[in-house]
Every structure is written in C-alpha cells, then in structure tokens.
TrEMBL record:
Residues 6-105 form the NusG-like N-terminal domain. The keyword Transcription regulation applies. It comes from the Bacteria. Keywords: Transcription, Transcription antitermination, Transcription regulation. This is Transcriptional activator RfaH. One of its GO terms (biological process) is DNA-templated transcription elongation. One of its GO terms (cellular component) is cytosol.
Length: 171
C-alpha cells in the first residue's frame, strides 16, 4: 500500500510589514509562496498615487508537502510570526481559495476589487479625504470609471461633485 503525498497551501502570519521579507526567506528554503496584492490608493504630500499592497496584511500563503518538506522551519523563518494552526497541526487552505483569488487577478497580477459603492440613491455619505473631507452629502449615482456623484450642501445649496469612490463611505 503506497501513500501519495500531496502539497497543500497553508497560511503564514508575518511580522508587521514583513510580508516581502518572509516570502524571500521562505522561497530561499524552497517553499512556493503566494501573496495576493491589489493597487491601493495612497495620498501623500498632496499627491494621490496607486501602490501595490497586500490584500491580507500580515498574511501570505505557502505551499507545503507535509510528508516530504521540513515544514517546521517555517516557524523560525525571519519575517514569520507563525504558521496558522489548530494546536500544533497546521490548517490547510481549502483547495479552491487560491484559484478564486488568482481568477480575480488582472494582467499585472493585482487582485481586482469590486469598487462599486454599496450605497443606495439618496443615502447619506461622508467624504473621507480631499478638499471636501469630513463633509456629509447624499449619494447621487455613479460617475465615470472609479468615481461617484455626491450632492454636498455648500453655501446653503446642493452641489453635485464627482469624487473617487474610495474616499466616500456610508455616514
């Protein structure tokens, strides 16, 4: 009777902002790594840019064959906090999870997030950043691309403004 061992994906928790460091060190040991990333909007010094960021901060996926690989070395890898486990037994990720994540990647390997707002027409919203930060308004529909239309009360009248969708939240 022969047993066929098969590699599975597991979750590793990393130290704060150490996903790349942990991934490099795990890859050096021969493990296959996957860090799902997306383009995050960042405002800095009056500039707005999109930067790559981990979809799950402090977490990455590692593929391990428990029967043939020295998986316990993961625990002492620089950048790694621990392998997610139930007691001392690492918990494998369901088979379709990584496939579903990879299916949402664009041509550059970034996860495409559903940017469409979850607001209803006329719902009260709050502007989080930009020239209208901390103002409240009413959701007035979708604009072009990643923008939404919001009715703001400016100088005693309703003014329709077009804003980036990610700077507006439910009030």
């Amino acid at each position: 009777m022969s047993t066929v061992s098969e590699a599975a994906w597991y979750v590793v928790q990393t130290h704060v902002n150490a996903e790349a460091k942990a991934a490099r060190n795990l890859a050096r040991q021969g493990f296959e790594i996957y860090i799902p990333r997306y383009l995050k909007r960042r405002s800095h010094a009056r500039k707005i840019e999109k930067v790559a960021a981990p979809l799950f901060p402090r977490y990455l996926f590692v593929r391990v064959d428990m029967a043939t690989q020295r998986w316990r070395s993961i625990q002492s890898t620089i950048g790694v906090s621990h392998l997610v486990a139930n007691g001392s037994d690492p918990i494998p990720v369901q088979r379709d999870v990584l496939g579903l994540l990879k299916a949402r990647e664009d041509e550059r390997g970034f996860i495409k997030l559903d940017w469409r707002p979850k607001f209803s027409l006329g719902e009260k919203v709050r502007v989080l950043a930009g020239a209208f930060a901390d103002n409240f308004g009413l959701f007035d529909g979708l604009g072009d691309r990643d923008r939404v239309a919001v009715l703001l009360d400016i100088l005693g009248r309703k003014v329709r403004v077009s804003l980036e969708a990610d700077v507006v939240s439910a009030a």
